[in-house]
Amino acid sequence: MIKLCVFDFDSTLMDGETIDFLASDYGVGDEVKAITKRAMAGELDFYESLTHRVALLKGMPLSRVKEICSDLPEMNGARELILNLKERGIKVVVFSGGFKTGTNAMQERLGFDINFANILHHKDGILSGSVGGEMMFDFSKGEMLLRLQKILDISQSETMCVGDGANDISMFKHSRLNFAFCANEILKKQATYCIEKKDLREILKYI
Q: What is the pTM of this model?
C-alpha cells in the first residue's frame, strides 16, 4: 500500500519551468530555456546548469519574482490527484530543483504536505545571481527521499514518485511505483509507467 507520494514540481505539478517564466520576464528567456532543456534531458550537470541559469537573473527585483511565482499555472489534474491521494491518507511531498518562492505559493493552493526546494539569494530586494538550498544536485532528490522514508518509517515498497526530468532519476531509484509524466527519454527508461497525456488524473488509472 502506498503511504508516500513525491512529486517533482516544474513541468509536473506546475505547467512549465519556474526559471523559464522568470527569465522570460527578465529578458533572458531564450538562453535560460536552452540550458533548462539540456539539463532536463540529462545532457548537463544539474548543479552547473542551475547556477548558470540563476546567474542570468542577477539584478531582477525580488518583488517581481514573488509576483510571478504567486501566479504559476497548475498542471491539468494536479488539484484532483492530490486531493485523491490525501483522501487515501497518503503523504504528498514536493521535491523541486526550482525555488521555494514557487513551491510555497503552490502549496497554499494545492495543499500538499511539505516541499523541499532551493532559495534565490537576494539582497536589498534584488537577486544576487546566487542560489542555495536542498535540491542543488542531481542526487539531491534521492538523498532527501531516503531521509524522509527513515523519518516517516515508510519503505521503498510504500513509496511512489512522479517526475519528468533527469534530476528525478535519483528519487525513482528508491521508490517502487514511478511515473514518468510527459517526460524526457532518460527518465522514461527508469519508470514503472509513462504518462503521455498532459493530465495528472491519468495516474489514477494505475493506483
A: 0.94
